[in-house]
Each structure stands twice: as structure tokens, then as C-alpha cells.
Amino acid sequence: MANSMLRRVRVVAALAWKAHPVATAGSVVLGVLGGVAPVATAWLTKLVLDALALGEGTAALVPLGAGLAVAGLAVIVLPHVSAYAQAQLRRALRLLIYDRLFRAVNTHPGLSRFENPSFHDTLRLAYESSHNAPDRLVAGALAIGQALITLSGFVVTLFAVNPLMVAVILVAALPSVRIQLLLSRERAEVMWEITPAMRRQVFYGDLLTKPEAAKEVRLFGLGDHLRARMLGEVRGINRAERDVDRRTLRSQGVMALLGSVVAAGGLLWAVVSAASGQLTVGDVTVFVAAVAGVQAALTTIVTQWADAHNALLMFGHYTAVVEAEPDLPVPAAPTPLPALSGRIELRDVWFRYSDEHPWILRGVDLVIPSGRTVALVGVNGAGKSTLVKLLCRLYDPVRGQITWDGVDLREASPADLRARIGAVFQDYMDYDLTAAENIALGDLTAAGDLERVHDSARQAGVHETLTALPRGYDTMLSRIFGDRDETGVALSGGQWQRLALARALMRVRQDLLILDEPSSGLDAEAEHEVHTSLRRHRGDRTSVLISHRLGTVRDADLIVVLSDGRIIERGTHDELMAAGGEYARLFTLQASGYETGGAGGGVDGGVGGGAPEAPEDILRTATPSTRSAGR
Ligand SMILES: Nc1ncnc2c1ncn2[C@@H]1O[C@H](COP(=O)(O)OP(=O)(O)OP(=O)(O)O)[C@@H](O)[C@H]1O
């Protein structure tokens, strides 16, 4: 434990030096001067008083008085200069520490860490401690250093007047050190225990304030319920904090009482000694200043030590995040991933999200030939999205392997792999940025290429919508982050989905296009347009397509039916229909659902009007009954 604390001290010292060497060195020098100044003031006061009592002349008194004036000035000015230097250091440290923290977060190529509650607790405490732990440590170290200098000066002074008093004060302070350290550890443990409650509190607070949640919260009348839940969490947090505060108060009260008794005893002794002529007036002043100075310095040392100790414990969360191994093994010398020319192959792939979770994929064998379109279909929870997440190496298979032209994905660099993939996930992101930025995020190397941005938007069928916005592509797509004098724009669900599609299409050089329900939120006409455009865009590109609207996948080169993590059927549309299995059942079911709706005149948005003739037409022109926008 002591070793790891020492290591953390070294880490913080190195960080401070790297962040701002001048402010670090300046703070240390100012700390030393700040420590010497009170002792010098006390000594000079004694010398002036004794010189006055002895009736010394001006020649002796003026230098002493001048020295006293300089020391007094230093006592007043130094704290302000020191506070400025420390603030400079704090700002520089904050920048460096955030940089390292989020660099470390970005080194995890996969998703598993982000789904782990313990990682979230550590991350939250790391974030919080990176706010203030280094500041507290640096400030604490400087305050301790300064107090140690003052303490040594006063101890020497006190020793000259009454050696016994030194021993009494030091011994009286010892229990306080121990108690403060125990309390600081307890405080750190309580912080760890209440972190899940703090995260839940933030979660409920977000639900009560975020525009995305406001609709349901109002519709279902959840406001008071969520507020009560949030307050419940806050009460729990308060209870835990209050218990530690009470223990702190008790022990600090006892220590303060002990200190006062010792100081009062010393004062009594000094007065009696002065009355009997054993001490001069100057001796009494310096003795009283020294007792107060030693006690104040000891209190500073003990409380700052405890605070620095607590900051060090909290800083452990930061080092845990910064030093964590990547969640997926990244090869030291990755095999370069060539442009896909042969096939992507899944060989006996088994996957579950953790040892505690059930198997989601159970021995999947699949070949995705280069230049072909493979469609994955199956009921909710069959494992389709999981499979495409594995293709992007957001997780590794637990057993089996996935190869890209023979290269195991584990041997390639995740960044290389992802540069070759364009994807729209079911749970795509809406960024509170401008329309152009929302699309350009798909390929940051082309962020300034507005023609590319517009092209992608055209292919996704959203160009006209974006041009018609108040500031065109520069319109902020956010109701909460726009300029204060600007009314932000909110897009509809389907428009956001097209924007996500445009983002994926920005990657013009990608070898693999993954579309996980790319049109679930689109109206019938838009879906038809988008699919026609996508078919054109896919061209001879390798694509994996997931859709519950079976009409949109019927022209795929290979349709794979997943059920309970296994491939139960594969073939072309015609082959699968002829086989009369699960695919044929689902396709017929969907078509008959629409036919019933169509016959009853209930199908909205049919472009041609009247009852459609073939299932694929129906499926292209009707609103689906199977799922919503997938959000
Ligand atoms: N991050 C996760 N952690 C744990 N379990 C998960 C996670 N994501 C998905 N699952 C589980 O894995 C199973 C398969 O989910 P997946 O999203 O792959 O299915 P799907 O076939 O895409 O379904 P849908 O058609 O509803 O989109 C589900 O039972 C789901 O609960």
C-alpha cells in the first residue's frame, strides 16, 4: 500500500512538472519562503522587544525594525502570489490530466468496458479525482512543506525556552495523525460505496431534464416518481456522508480540546516563570507565538496530510483508468489488412457478452464473399446485431475466429479494420452539432470537403431537407446547444436516420458496408428511394444488411436466417421461398399482414395506391408492423 501511494506521489509530481515547470518550481520556492516568514517574524519581534527592554539605541533597532517590516510584508504578500502560481499550475494540470484520461478511455477498442458498472464507477471517480486530486495533492504537499519549515523554526525556538513543552505538544499531536489518516481512508471507501448511487442520481436527473426523455416522462406522468427516486438516492448519499462527518467532528473536537489544554498549561508556566524573573518579556512573546505556531503547523500538517492521503486514494482510480490494459488485445505488430478481395469468414463463432450471460452466437459458420450482399434476418434477439458488432471487432468471439482475406481480426489493428468499414447501427447517434458536422463525422479526413458531404446526403435522401433548413448545412441540429439567439432545429426520427446513413456513406473507400436496419424509421416512399440509392451505392461493394422488412433484402446474394444464435437457413430469396422454411414463413406472414391491411385500406403511404400486387412491392411501400424506428 505504502509503495503504491509513493508511486502515485511520484506520478503527480511528474505530472505537475510536465504540466507547468515554472509554476511548479515557483510554488515550491514561494512555499519555502512562506514557511520561513512567520518564524522570522516571531524571532525579529523577540529581538526588537528585548532590545527595547535593554534600552538599545536606534542603530541597533532600525535594522531589526526594517527586517521585521520585510518579514511582515512577506507574510501578507506571499500567500497571494503563491495562490496565483498554484492556480496556474492547477489549470495546466487539469488540461494534461484530462488529456491522459480521455486518451486512455479511447485506447479501448471494444465496448465491453463501457458496459461494465465497475468500470463506470472507476471512471466517474477518476474523472472527479482528476478534477481535484492533483490540485489537492500539490496544494497539500506545498502546505505541508511550508508548515514543516515553520514547525522546525518554532520547535527550535520553543526548545530554547522550554524543551519539555516541545515533547508535550508533539506527543499530544500523534493520535490526531493516526485518526485523520483512518478517517481519510474511510472517506475514500464511502466515496466508492456511494458512487453507484451518485450515478443513478445523475441518471434520474438526466431523465427529468433531457429533451429525449421529456415526452415519455410527461406522457406517463413519471416526473414525481423519478424525482422521488432521485431524492431517495440523494438521501442515501447524505446518510453515508453524514456518518463520516460525525466521526470526523467527534475526533477533531477531542483533539482541539487536548491542544487547548496543552497551550493553556504552557502559557501558565511562561507567565509564572516571567514573574519570577526566569524569562524576559521577549521570551514570553516568542514562547506564546511558538506554541501557537507549532500547534497551527501541526494541525496544518495533519489535516493536509489526511487530505493528501485521501486525494492519493482517489487518484488511484485515475491511475487505474490510465494504466488499464485495452479491453481487447491489440497486437504489438498488427498484420496489415489488405483491401478485401477474397472473403470475410466466420468459423465456428461462439459469443456471449460475459461469462454470466447466455450464449448469443452458437457456432456460426458464414462466408461473406467480397463484392456480395449478405442479408441477416431473424426474429428479435436472434443475434444479428451482435454478429455485426463482432465483424467490427467491438468484441472478440469467445471461441472460433473471424478472418478478413485470411487475416484473423485479432491480428489486425482495430483502427485499420474500422477504416475499411462503413456502418449504420440500429442505435445510431444523433450529435448535437451542425448538419454538415453530423455527416462529416463519418470521415474526418474529408470534413472540409462539402461536395462529399452533400453527395452522401443526396444518396441518403436527406439533401433537400438539409438545404431547406434556416442555415442550410450549417444549421445546428440541437434544441439545447445552439446559439442563445438562435432557435435550434430538431429533425424527425426518419430524418435523423437518413443523416446517420449519410454519415456512413461518407466513407467512400470502405470495403464493407454494414447496414443494421438502415430504413426502419423511414416513410414508405423514402425507404424505396433510399434502397434504390443504396443498391446503386453498394454496387460491387461487400455489404451486410439487416432488416426486418424482408422485401428490402430479397435481392441480396445470400440471405442468412439466424435463430437463437444459430444459422438455420441460408440461400437466395427464391431458394429459401422454395424450401418453405422459417424465411418463407416470415415472408409470407409479413406479406399477408400487409395484404390484410391493404385490403382494408389501412396501409399508409403506399406510393402506387390500391392493393399492391407482389409482396416485395407491398413491403417497399408499406409501413412495417414488425418494429419501429429501432430507437
Ligand atoms: N451489450 C449487451 N450485453 C448483454 N446482452 C446483450 C447486449 N446486447 C445484446 N444483448 C443480448 O443479446 C441477444 C441478441 O441481441 P441482438 O441485438 O444481437 O439481437 P438482434 O437479432 O439484432 O435483435 P433485434 O432484431 O431485436 O435487433 C439479446 O438477447 C440481447 O438481450
Automatic annotation (TrEMBL):
Superkingdom field: Bacteria
Where exactly are the transmembrane stretches of this chain? 21-44, 64-85, 254-272, 284-306
For molecular function, the Gene Ontology terms on record are: ATP binding
Keyword set includes Nucleotide-binding: yes
> Ubl conjugation as a keyword?
no
Which spans does this entry mark as compositional bias, Polar residues? 622-631
Q: What protein name does the entry list?
A: ABC transporter ATP-binding protein
Give the Pfam families listed for this entry. Answer: ABC_tran (PF00005)
Organism in which the protein naturally occurs: Nonomuraea antimicrobica
Where located?
Answer: Cell membrane
Ranges of Gly residues compositional bias?
Answer: 600-611
Q: Which SMART domains match?
A: AAA (SM00382)
Membrane association type: Multi-pass membrane protein
Residue ranges of domain ABC transporter in the record? 344-589
Q: Where is the ABC transmembrane type-1 domain?
A: 25-310
The record, for PROSITE patterns, names: ABC_TM1F (PS50929), ABC_TRANSPORTER_1 (PS00211), ABC_TRANSPORTER_2 (PS50893)
This protein's UniProt keywords = ATP-binding, Membrane, Nucleotide-binding, Transmembrane, Transmembrane helix
Give the chief site where it resides. membrane
* Region Disordered: start-end pairs: 600-631
